[in-house]
Amino acid sequence: MTDQTPHLTHSEARSAKPRFGFAQLTGFALLAVLAIGALGGPSLIGQDPAKQSLLSTFESPSRSHLLGTDNLGRDMAARLLSGAQLSLSLALLSVITAGLPGTLLGVIAAWRGGWTDRLIGAFSDAVLALPGLLLVLMLAAISPGSWWALYAGISLTLWVEYFRYTRQRARVVLSEPAVEASRLLGLSPWVLLRRHLIPEIGPGLLTLAAFGAATAVTSVAALGFVSVGLRPPTAEWGVMMTELLPYWREAPFLILQPVLCLIVTVLALHLSVGGARRP
Amino acid sequence: MTSALMKTVFAALAKRALQALIVAVVVGIVSFAMMQALPGDAAYRIAAGRYGYDMMDAAAADAVRLELGLDQPAILQLWIWLKALAQFDLGTSLVYGTPVIDEISTQLGYSLLLAGGAIVASLLIALPVGIAAGLNPNGIVDRVTFGLSVLFRAIPAFALGIVLVLIFAVQLGLFPVAGFHGPENLVLPSLTLGLGLAAVSNRVLRDSVVDAMRADWRLFSRTKGLSARLTLTRHVLRNAALPVVAYIGVQLAYLIEGVVIVETVFAWPGIGHALVHAIFGRDIAMVQGTALTLGLLYVALNLCVDLACRGIDPRGRLA
Amino acid sequence: MIYSIEVNALSVYAGKTRLMGPISFNLSNGGTLVIMGETGAGKSLIAQAILGTLPNTLHAKGQITVNGRRVDQMRQSARRRMWGTVIATLPQEPWRALDPLMRAFRQVSEAHHYVGGKKRSLANADTAKAFETLGLTGAEKQLPNTLSGGMAQRVAFAAATAGNAPILLADEPTKGLDAERHTKVVELLAKVPKEGGTLIAITHDVSVTRRLAGEVIVLRDGALVEQGKAIDVLANPTSSYTQSLIDADPKNWPQSEKQSDLAEKRDVVLTVENLAVARSGKRLFEGFDLTLRAGERVALVGPSGIGKTTLLDAMAGLIKPEAGTVTRAQSQSRHTVQKLYQDPPAAFPARIALKHVLKDVARLHKTDWSSVLTTLEKLGIHPSLLDRKPDEVSGGELQRISIARALTVGPKVLLADEPTSRLDPITQRDTLNMLETMAAAENFAVVLVTHDRQIANKWADRTIILT
């Protein structure tokens, strides 16, 4: 051994960036508020969202009706909370139902390659042949007004995103020299997953989940709005918009309430991943 | 035409032809399932649709049953259903009593008009904004448009439609609320969809401009002596356009979905509106016909994007 | 005497911090200046300051005179007009400097047409001539992604010099090229001053300096270390840093002791018989034989694309050979063949602290953590580095950590795939020295893949040349 490392420079430590930006923190805060609203539901304010009172329609916000009443005298706040419960639970469920198998199939396809890959890939292509909402629309039409049809349709269209993303990223990661080195060193597939794959695709999956949830919330409301999703008298944001639209002149603040709820929910989900684009 | 070019063009055609086939089969199967899920006797319903409730009786229903093979097992019926589809027999609308194909051919024009209007509107917004933001990354324009993009992306098309109608049609009275009576009707629905498209595509354009401006090949084009203008026209534009055109392919799904919803919001006499109407009225022949047309439109537009990408990028990759 | 380029007390600052300088030099027509130094020495800043392409966050001080005009006082637009016609630039990574969507011929002919001011037909004729002279015939219709590194470098050269600029700036022109192409590019550059032009070349490679001759400036961490005629500086350097740069040139390495009597004393660890390998269906070579003994150092030499990496993969058991056999000694587990990679950051999981990676391996192979730390210490790695992620340590450090990682397994064979080709010369020599020491101490065999015959000759017990 000749001279012991006189020239080998030691690299400088990098300055650490803050972990979450302002936009992201705002997103988290909004999501937390929405989550509390959805978990508590109408019982938070002790009002029944379905209770009509034709004597007290279009009331302005007051002590007893925090956000006023609608055309049938129903409490708006209770209906909005009920809508939040419905939309967010459906979004959460469909993200889980789509995300877990989608990710798993993506890893399997990338890992196994060959026919497994081609088979799952062909299935995903078939699902993607139609725009997602069109498929949800048609599936929902088989069983009109059913929560289950919506849930199944949305999950069926969402899983493909996870699958494609995971497959594509996993292919790249698995072909890196780093994975080859780990295999040569004898490390188990579990270690490969934990050290190589999960750190690499985890953040992207979270982003996908946020966007998927936003898509689910939007789809439910869109279908409700055009009267092919959930049906009145269900307190769903899109359905409420259809119901309240004719009364724009009398009570402009009523229609704006579900619209704002929807926009804030989608915005919160987008912000929670830092305003990034879909990966 | 070189053989490499032919090869990628054929690959694109084959890929999209397969997709079109899948669209037809999926739409056919789902429509069939919708038919099966309807309560009551399908033969009676179809007969009523054909001849009107007054003219309909058990004999007419039986004739329909025999003709459509409704007394056969479901799987055979599905086969008959798909065979009719393969022969471009879309059937007759239960609601209007006219052939579906006639309805669709008038509606398609309106939908294409709206889709075209939306794309034009999105380009009018995204091109100047994206380029301005990209030429000065982290500048004031970039930051403001980033914020606006995040906001507009979060507003679903129909919610944006409602807001625009309330502001521009109802409050200000600048544009008509709904229907189609003249070109002024095109403005609000196009803007609704265009804003949604531009909210994302202006950022894609911005990123690709930033990348192109930072690229080694741009600097080399300058240092080998080409002027800024020549570098822009001969190198930067082409390279920056590629990801944007490819991204239009991604946005087509949003566009088709948007057409369905926004047409309904604005009572636009197009295919999307007809589809929603048909689902609501359980008019299955119309559902099938309109969904199929929208699906095929999606495939056709995708093919156009494929070919455009191939035209820009001689490396022969498909988007 | 009128100097074609005259630089006086040039420094480059980031705010108030001086990154480079001050340096001064004069070059007349037919002159050559080589700027030498390692990564981060600020060599490229000189080129950027002369051209006027410094990033906005940096600024230059001092005088730069080109053909009698004070460039540093010119407006930016006026400086840009000199590009291509007065000063030509050969980019650092030619492959990335060519427009990926335009065919090679047009990228050169557009320079003849727009910069040289020639009519289209003449521009095309001159381009065709240049392609012929540079040995690029047949590549006219190719897109940059199908060009090899050497070809891309020559296309860039043709495009850069189309405007007939008297001054050529070449930034690391030999980066990433194999020995043969390396020589060709240097020959191309050497022609510039011979034909009356002025050449400024930036390199970390002493052999380039030696062949281009002329003046030399040696930079270290932005400061001028030494300046003078290349012949004098290379023969009698006054600074110890220059000396160590010269020593790091493989040609000047001390000859490692050739272990010649291994056959009697050491066990065979790996036998390769009649091996044939193929890549994407194309057979690369066949009939390859090799018997490796413990502690032996073998070099595999050959040009890019011949299949060296594929051969290593077959020896590591990562791919199935087309024909022939690879046999490990019977007593060995399958983990006793390990690999080192060309690009160290790519050989580690990107988002995990290095510590976890090493601990995973140590736990699996029941190696004591303290013995891993001892190995790291021998390799000159401070344990605190292990808290970082792979992209937060230098390439040289990371390559030594990957040696330590491989040693944790207790390997009998280490397959090293150009492990130092992306490192600076001094780091390269130190890393290979350590590998030699470790191989002797731990008694494992090393197969070193390299395209540099000098390295092979100096370092290995024996060299196998693949053709």
Q: In percent, how helical is the residue content of chain A? A: 55-70%
Number of strands of chain A: 0
Q: Class by helix and strand content of chain A?
A: mainly alpha
Beta-strand percentage of chain B? under 5%
CATH homologous superfamily heading of the largest domain in chain B: MetI-like
What are the low-pLDDT stretches of chain B, counting only 5+ consecutive residues below 50? none
Q: Kindly identify the CATH topology of the domain at 79-272 in chain A.
A: MetI-like fold
Keywords (chain C): ATP-binding, Cell membrane, Membrane, Nucleotide-binding, Transport
Organism (chain C): Pacificibacter maritimus
Membrane topology (chain C): Peripheral membrane protein
Protein name (chain C): Peptide/nickel transport system ATP-binding protein
Briefly characterize the structure.
Chain C: GO terms for molecular function: ATP binding; ATP hydrolysis activity. Chain B has 2 domains: 85 residues, no CATH class; 181 residues, MetI-like fold (Orthogonal Bundle).
Task: Give me some keywords for this one.
heterotrimer; A: 279 residues; MetI-like fold; elongated; disordered N terminus; B: 319 residues; mainly alpha; 2 domains; 12 helices; Peptide/nickel transport system permease protein (chain B); transmembrane helix (chain B); transport (chain B)
Q: Any overview of this molecule?
A:
The complex is a heterotrimer of chains A (279), B (319) and C (467). Chain A is mainly α. Chain A has nine helices and no strands. The mean pLDDT of chain B is 81. The two termini of chain B are 20 Å apart. Chain B is mainly α and 319 residues long. In chain B, 78% of the residues lie in helices and 0% in strands. The radius of gyration of chain B is 24 Å and the shape is flat. Helices cover 36% and strands 25% of the residues of chain C. In chain C, helix 14 crosses helix 15 and helix 15 packs parallel to helix 16. In chain C, 49% of the residues are buried. Chain C has 467 residues and is an alpha/beta fold. Chains in contact: A-B, A-C, B-C.
